[in-house]
Design goal:
By secondary structure, the protein is mainly α. It has one domain: Growth Hormone, Chain: A (Up-down Bundle), CATH 1.20.1250. The chain is 73% helix and 1% strand. The protein contains 18 helices and 2 strands. Strands 1-2 form a two-stranded antiparallel sheet. Helix 1 runs antiparallel to helix 5, helix 3 packs antiparallel against helix 17 and helix 12 packs antiparallel against helix 13. The longest helix has 29 residues. It is globular and about 75 Å long. The C terminus is likely disordered.
Length: 443
């Protein structure tokens, strides 16, 4: 017997355990997305309760994005240094507190502060999920799991449509928010109990090529070094900016302005308008894993991303600028536009492959920051334009805006969609292969 024979390598974690660990992050991301778009179906309640117009409402909703975007700067690096377990648990605790404050907010100031807390705390969810995916799943499944991450978030967004409106009609929006805070507290507890940063923490072999066992801590880059390194790549710049023109229109419409637009100019009830905007989100959710898997199978990122950007531009142009569409045609266009918008999920795998593996968390955070810049800017900007074109009409104490005002403000969506199409054309294809070393030609 060879006494010096190396012990057998530990197996990779079983799929159910991997999905459980990743799934708890997905539940938190679902809650974050639910809280992100919740104002869309209670715009009338918020405007009446806080006595505000479109600009102030847009700003209230956008406070979520202000802190969300700001947190992407440290979140990616913290995912590399702290690890997803601590990050997700802390994020869920703060999100629960922020949601409770939102439900109890006596004035607009406290409502804005609560949205700021919620946005900053849930900002950690998506990057932590991507980090967990890199450790708990094979590389070949990364784009698929990324798509499933988007799917889980958009399930949360859909739950903030018709179901939320029904609950609000029954119990009031404040009671519903307080209940949501309690659920988020429970998620924080389960995350701390079950989530682990790497399979090596519980005796399995991890899937990350650069992080395993004890080397994990010493191999993590510093925050400044990570930022300096990833921005030496042309793709980083382009993949940070391009998705804002895809996601911004989706969340500006479905996350705030779509319901009042549809109730005013298509004479839909708030519940039916919420169902229609949820249709857009359902299509987006379905597209994420499908387009991610298609990209993996083709071994290409750029062609699918380019096609998706062009289709979203065409879809929004018709939806927002052509008046009096038939209900079936409007529904079909929202489905097509939502599905095409799912192309943005490819950008996370695209960006991760464009930089060295050690900076996966950092580049994911920066890319996610770019994703959220779109709605952060568009939601209040559209509200500002609407208020500039308001002619003084009120209905139940809530401002009513005419079609011309909406078309003028929605021109901002089209401009940003055009920018996304242009930027993605200049990206460099990775062919689904991880970049091992800096490519200085890309800078």
């Amino acid at each position: 017997m060879n006494l010096h024979q190396a012990p057998p390598s530990p197996p990779h974690p079983p799929a159910p355990r991997a999905w459980l660990v990743w799934g708890l992050g997905a539940v938190f991301y679902l809650i974050g997305f639910y809280l992100r778009v919740a104002p869309a179906v209670i715009t009338d309640k918020l405007m009446a309760d806080f006595q505000i117009g479109a600009a102030a409402l847009g700003n209230l909703s956008a406070f979520y994005y202000y802190s969300y975007v700001a947190m992407q700067v440290p979140t990616g690096a913290l995912a590399d240094s702290w690890g997803p377990r601590k990050l997700l648990t802390a994020g869920a605790l703060v999100a629960a507190g922020g949601t409770l404050l939102f439900g109890l907010a006596p004035t607009l100031f406290w409502a804005n502060l609560s949205r700021l807390l919620i946005g900053g705390s849930v900002a950690v969810a998506f990057v932590a999920m991507l980090k967990l995916a890199a450790h708990w799943f094979p590389h070949r499944l990364f784009a698929l799991v990324s798509g499933m991450a988007l799917f889980s978030g958009l399930v949360g967004a859909v739950s903030a449509g018709v179901p939320l409106r029904a609950l609000v009609d029954w119990f009031g929006w404040r009671s519903v928010m307080i209940g949501s805070a309690g659920i988020t507290f429970l998620v924080a507890g389960f995350t701390w109990i079950f989530v682990r940063d790497d399979p090596a923490d519980i005796g399995y072999a991890g899937h990350s090529p650069t992080v395993s066992g004890a080397s994990r801590d010493s191999g993590r880059p510093g925050m400044r070094a990570g930022f300096r390194e990833i921005f030496r790549f042309r793709n980083t710049w382009l993949l940070v900016l391009a998705p804002s023109g895809v996601v911004g229109p989706v969340l500006a419409f479905s996350g705030l302005w779509g319901v009042p637009f549809l109730t005013t100019h298509y004479h839909l009830t708030p519940t039916r308008a919420a169902a229609l905007t949820s249709t857009l989100l359902v299509a987006w959710a379905v597209a994420g894993p499908l387009l991610g898997a298609l990209s993996d199978r083709l071994g290409r990122r750029k062609p699918i991303y380019v096609a998706g950007c062009l289709l979203t531009l065409a879809g929004w142009s018709v939806i927002l600028m052509v008046p009096a569409l038939s209900y079936p045609l409007l529904t079909a266009l929202l489905i097509l536009t939502g599905f095409a918008s799912g192309c943005m999920i490819i950008g996370f795998a695209f960006a991760k492959e464009s930089v060295p593996p050690a900076y996966a968390g950092t580049v994911s955070g920066i890319t996610n920051m770019g994703v959220m810049v779109g709605p952060m800017v568009l939601q209040p900007a559209i509200g500002w334009v609407l208020d500039r074109h308001w002619h003084g009409t009120l209905l139940g104490g809530v401002r009513v805006y005419d079609l011309a005002a909406y078309r003028t403000s929605f021109a901002l969506i089209l401009a940003w969609s055009v920018l996304a199409c242009v930027l993605i054309l200049f990206t460099k294809e990775t062919y689904c292969r991880q970049s091992p070393e800096p490519d200085h030609q890309a800078s």
